[in-house]
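Can't attach files on this board, so I'm pasting raw text. These are the components:
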Amino acid sequence: MGKNPVVPYLLIFALGIGLIFFMSLYGLDQKKEIASQNDDGKTEETTDSAEFDAEAVAQGKCIGCHGGDLSGGMGPGLVGTSLSKDDIKAIVKDGKGTMPAQGITDDAELDAMADYILSLK
Ligand code: HEC
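---
Top answer:
Structure tokens for the assembled complex are below.
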């Protein structure tokens, strides 16, 4: 009965735990770096949504169903609509019938989109 045969395993075990601990510290450091990069990215995104271009978004999202000039396709024409601004905002935000919600939830953006639709003649 000399050395406990388990001791070398315990040493390796402790070493492993130590390694994991140091790696997670290193990871936290990287996480901070990534987080600060994201902060920069967010500033840019905020600028983008301040410059929300309803016409460009409509070209991207709406014309597939409402026609190239939004005068009607498989969805009804939007030119000269009799809907109120709030109705349009609600439809764009939540969808209506077979029209899916359009993924625009920011009130200022919904506002801009409704204004754009109402400006169509
Ligand atoms: C997947 C096809 C589809 C897309 C994309 C789509 N719509 Fe529609 N939209 C429809 C359909 C279909 C209706 C009719 C729904 C009903 O009355 O049941 C409709 C109805 C509407 C109405 C109500 C019109 C009325 O006179 O009742 C508005 C306003 C409208 N859409 C705006 C938009 C805007 C703005 C976009 C882009 C941001 C958009 N839609 C994208 C299919 C679509």
